[in-house]
Amino acid sequence: MENNNPVGGKAELANANQPKEGSRASSRNLADKLEEKLSAAEVVPGDDPSVVRSAADPLASSNPFVVFVLGGPGCGKGTNCARISKDFGFVHLSTGDLLRDEVKKGSEIGREAKAIMEQGLLLDDSIVLRLLKKAMTAAVVEGKESKFLVDGYPRSLEQAHMFEKEICPVSLVLYFDASDAAMTERILERGKTSGRVDDNIETIGKRLRTFHDCTEPAVKFYSRLGKLRRVPADGTLDDVYSLAQHVFQPAAIEAVHDLNLFEKK
Questions:
Q1: What is the mean pLDDT of residues 30-46?
Q2: What angle is formed at CA 17 by the lines to CA 144 and CA 47, rounded to 5 degrees?
Q3: Does residue 257 lie in a domain region?
Q4: Is the pLDDT of residue 190 over 70?
Q5: How far are the Cα atoms of 142, 167, 237 from residue 17, in angstroms, in the given order?
Q6: How confident is the model at residue 130 (pLDDT cuts 50, 70, 90)?
Q7: What are 197-239's pLDDT values in tens digits?
Q8: pLDDT tops 70 at residue 62
Q9: Which residue ranges are recorded for the region named Disordered (predicted)?
Q10: Residue 196's domain is classified under what CATH number?
Q11: Quick check: is 148 in a domain?
């Protein structure tokens, strides 16, 4: 029986972690090279030689509390994540931002990723996963809270399974449930000033179909597990946030911690 737990009544980079579509054979060499660089990359940020990587996995030992934040394009994920991060002390991670940062820095990883995407190809799921793990581990090593909002990931049930297998179990899934009409209207309005080439009616339709076909199965999966918290998201930004913040009140988070500990026994 499904339990949605309702609460209250650039473009290429942004879409780089979309689920697999067709053959990626022509990008395999670049992708393999990029994975090698990520495997060898130091997760400790900065150049301070006094900071030494622990032999143990610092991320796993921190017992991270991970919230997947899902919803269709234009549902308000990024805006709400920024507010939740500020108000409740979560580390906000967006795969699109992580990729943009690598490209902006001109790192080897960024150059390789850019080359793949400029060919109109998709980064392999494992590469995006490694970027996430690298960022999460760096946050823990820096002494930040081991509480993470993973914005817009997973894009598919397969990605969800990969994350839980390779990194850690997810504690909660926050789902901003907006209608296609509301999301389309917001994106078109944003497109007037964003400069994003994917903020147009044709691309919006494709992105919505991808969400319904690929991401909604993950939403339903976590609903069946009782981990989904659904937030109606057709209202104003303030109205939606007033509902979303209830998920992160201390009593609600403590209840999730208790349930997770019970499930591990």
A1: 52
A2: 40
A3: yes
A4: yes
A5: 26, 17, 26
A6: confident
A7: 667 788 889 899 999 999 999 999 999 999 999 999 999 999 9
A8: yes
A9: 1-31
A10: 3.40.50.300
A11: yes
- How many C-beta atoms lie closer than 10 Å to residue 261's C-beta? 10
pLDDT per residue as tens digits for the range 131-149: 899 999 999 999 988 999 9
Query: Which H, E and C letters describe the chain, residue by residue?
Result: CCCCCECCCCHHHHCCCCCCCCCCHHHHHHHHHHHHHHHHCCCCCCCCCCCCCCCCCHHHHCCCEEEEEEECCCCCHHHHHHHHHHHHCCEEEEHHHHHHHHHHHCCHHHHHHHHHHHCCCCCCHHHHHHHHHHHHHHHHHCCCCCEEEEECCCCCHHHHHHHHHHCCCCCEEEEEECCHHHHHHHHHHHHHHHCCCCCCHHHHHHHHHHHHHHHHHHHHHHHHCCCEEEEECCCCHHHHHHHHHHHHCHHHHHHHHHHHHHHHC
User: CA-CA distance, 219 to 221, in Å (whole number)?
Assistant: 5
pLDDT of residue 53: 40
Q: Is the pTM of this model over 0.90?
A: no
Q: Specify the number of domains making up the chain.
A: 1
